[in-house]
Amino acid sequence: MTMTLMTTKMNKERGAWGSEHGIKRWTFILVLTLYSSFIIHHSSFSQTLSPAARVSLITYGPGNDDISSVFGHTEIRFTDPMLGLDRDYSFGGFDYRADYFIIKFLRGTLPYNLTVHNLYQVLYYYQQTNRSIREQSLNLSPIQRQRLFSALEENYLPQNREYRYKFYYDNCSTRPRDMIANACGDSLTIPSRSRMTGKSYRDLMNEYLEEMPWYQLGMNLAIGKPSDEQTDGWHAMYLPERLFDQFAHATLRQANGQIVPLVSSVQTIFAPQETFRQQVSLLLDPDVVFAILGVLVALFTIRRYKVAGKVDSWFDRLLFSIVGFLGWFLLVLWLIRDDGVTSWNATLLYLMPLHLPLIFWATSSKATARRRTLYFGTTALLILLGILFSKIPGGFDVLFPMTLLIRCIVNLQPVRQAYRTPARID
Asked: What is the rounded radius of gyration, in angstroms, for the C-alpha atoms of the chain?
């Protein structure tokens, strides 16, 4: 920020560089800035906490203002009244203005970073978005507190603060978990750490997306088999509220052998107001939308086949081209995604990328009955397998594949049953 302001001022005052006085003035400013940065950094990194220092875990509740807030957030807070210190360490920072933001976000290579701020700097935002703020004071010993503080300060160095965000495995919740666990060492016991939750990464994720059905559908379409791995208590803590709950039951073994709770007290800094759950209009619900689409496609197909004796190739080209485009998008996500959660995606069985361009090969004017049978027969088999293996919540992975299956069946039935005459392929 300092350098940005300096650059702006430099652009406005280029004439100053042309004189000896201007050179001296800017040299002084540069030296002062570097010296101040060094003093601030050095004094912070080498600080020794006083006995009055306290460390706590801040858990922000889920929000609905955008998809990045829906899972909540976690920070580590240090306060030391003797040093006048009150700092929150957050591993959730990223730059919306980063070059190729969308591409990096899709690839999972968008750099996240550790940021530091005061709790009261962000308090207003969470109050305005009606998100809970809870603070768990941690029973860490002075040595453990200092170890954690020093590790966070080292992590905050410019060369260390960036990290490669991984949705399930390395995020703003798992980083505080790991930092605290490393500071406590073997003295920390989390009873549910190895206990299976009975839920997969996908299941836990979907619990937070129930009020955002289109986001839920989109995210479930994108993720693959790794998301269906069953979680234990440790891996479930990729969600801030799970981290809060499991720390609440954790214990520490002190130097004298005494076992104490990890959390000494819990304070609700802000309790959200009760509000009515936001629900998507019935006609805009994904299941309703795709059910209506399926009915319309079925009625159109039956009418054209039974009454007009036609199988409309233009309609198949349109429908399966869209499906193929979606399939290519999901396949690219599989190939480029860095954290692997989009790999082995079962939805690609019915959203097959090769529909584009194979649908044109199968429905061209020169296509033989054998070619059409091969294409639509194989597609029908893949659709049935996709319905069997896909794990998208709701009805999409049945309703939409069945819509495609209707078109496959009509293309595999070239004889009109009522008249025993071949249907025209237009």
From this structure: 29
